[in-house]
Amino acid sequence: MNVNELMKTILHRRAIRRFADRQIEEEALEQILQAGLYAPSAGGRQGPIMAVCQDKQVNERLGRIKRANARPRMATAASYVSREQPSIADDPNIKNAFYDAPTVITLFGPRNFLFAAEDCAVAAENMMLAADALGVGSCYIGQGWTAFADPYGQEILKQWGIRTGYYAVMQLLLGYPREGDAHPAPKPRKQGRVLRF
How much is the mean pLDDT over the chain? Predict the structure, then answer.
């Protein structure tokens, strides 16, 4: 089977939670954001707002707030997120839910729109695929609002000028994968997930 470049990217992309201590290049970031801006949206509304933060101190603090407000069911020997690149559910010692990613994009959706979360998720997927194609690692983090669930988070929302009619759906972490780490291996695909009639 001849696999085109897009399919190669789809098959290669994995969540990255260990990042090199350097910022991604501006040209790469612009391409990733463009991929998000061109994502499908319900009714063509283009509702998601993408707040890009590359301030290490802000990302660190919001990541810690998010971790403190996260209540993940902790992993077990049989049920876990990743052995290769543990998540906050896998390792209680991880204190920053943003895993020290140098770039954190928070996607905000309109509160009173039925498909706000779906629109943000589609934009995030476009950006994750663009990132992988550019050699940039990414990780989708749900429940975005938990990063802003204290006075500091609320102040950041004001500084960023986020409209009160919007809420943080999720964060997309971006950064170059840490050198020396093997690219995470794909999990075997489960059978019986495609039903044909």
Answer: 93
